């Protein structure tokens, strides 16, 4: 990582802006899940990762309590990460189909991944002020990811966060405000568009609301349109 990204990542990791989230994360790291009893949980805010020159930027909701919050890398060590990483590998955006730990050798090409919220929230439901507290980190990534052409938002919270992010960065958001839907697309500003997808959570993938075929198609479109 370049120095600007390193600096951003360190600021994310040391963030203490949301007492409710920090207390929840601390408690999860103590209680743990039985399957991970021997893990030393990361238990800190989780920075983004990937290709600094990415043309495709994927924005999720937040680290999972026993996934990214445990491993220290977003979409790593849980079923959501398994689903996403396998799809990225099929699309030629990842060098391997698994995402298990920070040192598992995973590398992304042409793609960067982050989240609207950097701490695991109780029930996967961050509060509005917690989303707002994290918005600065999206703003910083917006400026650092100079080659971005497509932002892929996983879920409505990510979609709304990206629309707010674009508005803060002088993009003219269409009126009426674009509604979230799977495969929805809207132009944010010249040379940059937003695409939506159902989140890759088990709630969607286990019920069939989001299938591999559906996600592969959205990811393929996002990759093609990112150039």
Poorly predicted parts: none
User: How many domains make up the 3D coordinates?
Assistant: 1
Q: So what's the CATH class?
A: Alpha Beta
**Helix and strand composition category:** alpha/beta
Stated plainly, the CATH topology is called Uracil-DNA Glycosylase, subunit E
Estimated radius of gyration: 16 Å
> How does the major sheet shape up?
6 strands, mixed
| Helical residues, percent | 25-40%
The CATH architecture can be named as: 3-Layer(aba) Sandwich
Total count of strands? 6
Total helical segments: 8
Q: Give helix and strand order, one letter per element, not per position.
A: HHEEHHEHEHEEHH
- Overall pLDDT confidence: 96
**Can you tell me the overall shape?**
globular
Give the CA-CA distance, first to last residue: 23 Å
Numbering strands along the chain, what is their spatial order in the largest sheet?
Answer: 1-3-2-4-6-5
